[in-house]
Amino acid sequence: MTAIETTEHPAPAPDRAPRGPGRAGPGMPPAAPGLASALVWGAGQLLNRQAGKAAFFFTFFAGMLVWEIATGNYYVGMEFTARLNGGFFVRGLWGLITLGTQPREMTMTGLTEGDNSIVLMANGLIAFLTLALLAVIWIWSIRDAAGYRAELNAGRRPETSRAYFKRLWESAFAYIALSPGLVLLVFMSVLPVLFGILVAFTNYNRDNLPPKNLVSWVGTDNFATLFAVPSWTETFAGILVWTVVWAVIATVTTYAAGMLLAVMLASRRVKFPRVWRSVFLLPWAVPAIVSALVFRSMFNGQFGPVSQWLVDIGLTDERVYWFTDPTSPNLARGVALLVNLWLGFPFFMALVGGVLANIPDSYYEAARIDGAGAFQQFRYITVPIVQRTVTPLIILSFVHNFNNFGVIYFLTEGGPDNVDYRFAGSTDLLVTWLFKLTLDNRLYNIGAVMSLVIFVIVGAISVLNLNRTKAIREL
């Protein structure tokens, strides 16, 4: 009986155990190599007899540890504190959480050593994002070790590390090629966005500026200030309404004018259409800042030629102060819309002109045979085709006009002054108000709140309209 049992369940001798990759520890539960890789990156791959993969994952783990130790003060026997002894990651996360604990003081020899809250926040974000990227590799290591062991237990043939990386290169080449761009995106785009979001929850303003003062977390107090304090709420509501009105009118007028000129230039009755297109594209070719400054000089209430011409022809008894008359803010708003029309219509003219050139003549011939007039052809053929093509760009134009800093700031500087507003004028948009809050008045916390509000509003409008657009749904 013992011989039979021995025959049915032979125990392989240690010196005869298979040496192929992945055969170490047959029947090992998948959690074992997964846990090993969770503790030491690549250890699970080493248990699975994949030395190449183990070295790959361990390189990242070792690099992280070396970087932390090399940038810190880890001495045996020294009392450890994150502020004084921590390396890049430990001190970075400590600074992000606390924003510093040691303020700088003025002495006879100058400012003492201390913490700069904003620098700590920036370094903490860099450390956090770096750890987030490394966490992706850590999770990859755990899942790979556990998954490969589970497949071996299910009967899969062992795979060498070289074969694995070759298969990975062939199957995921696009992701590998895009990964450097992703890393740059994280640190060049995501990092500033997160920094702005965090500032909105601090007391970082002109009364509390580093490095002399420490910045602290204040929760949602800044949002309460903007939406609960009457003076701030009135300013925000008034500027928001004008910003929406400005964005809608500016987009509609530029699109309508551009489409009208494109249709007219597409007519066979117009001679030399290329010459006319070149002439009408000139406002678009000139930098918008230059045009805004020229118009600002032309509409100058004291020296501008427009005001003088109106007086000369008898339309006005005295000069018109377009941008500085607080009793007539709509004058400045009207001029700003006209200047924006001058700068914006060439874009839609060129865009619509390209669409019209691709509409088959057979559509119009069939319409004429059915008795459709010019207006009906325009309404039922031209407009639907053009609208379907350019609607996403109209939405993008709305977003651009919503944040059209250049025209407003360089033309009117937000004026005329409005006594009911805080740090803003009657033509200020949300984005120009944000500029004044931050650079002119150093209210960085309120400015950060404003940037979040602008992002939410513009993002919601854009997503809602783009999802309703056929051109987007068909992509």
TrEMBL record:
Q: Work out whether the entry's keyword set contains ATP-binding.
A: no
Q: What is the lineage of its organism?
A: Bacteria, Bacillati, Actinomycetota, Actinomycetes, Glycomycetales
**CDD domains assigned:** TM_PBP2
User: What is the designated name of this protein?
Assistant: Maltose/maltodextrin transport system permease protein
Database matches in InterPro entries:
MetI-like, MetI-like_sf
Renumbered to this chain, region (Disordered) spans 1-29
Family as reported in the entry's similarity comment: Belongs to the binding-protein-dependent transport system permease family. MalFG subfamily.
Q: What does this protein do?
A: Part of the ABC transporter complex MalEFGK involved in maltose/maltodextrin import. Probably responsible for the translocation of the substrate across the membrane.
Q: Which GO terms describe its molecular function?
A: ABC-type maltose transporter activity
| Membrane topology category | Multi-pass membrane protein
Q: Does the keyword Cell membrane apply?
A: yes
Q: What are the GO BP annotations of this UniProt entry? A: maltodextrin transmembrane transport
Which PROSITE patterns does the record cross-reference, listed alphabetically?
ABC_TM1
What species is this protein from?
Glycomyces algeriensis
Every copy of the ABC transmembrane type-1 domain together lies at 240-465
- Domain of life where this protein originates: Bacteria
- Which parts of the chain span the membrane according to its record? 54-76, 118-140, 172-201, 239-266, 278-299, 335-359, 443-466
Instruction: Give the CC-aspect GO terms.
Output: maltose transport complex
Localisation: Cell membrane
The record's keywords, sorted A to Z, are: Cell membrane, Membrane, Sugar transport, Transmembrane, Transmembrane helix, Transport
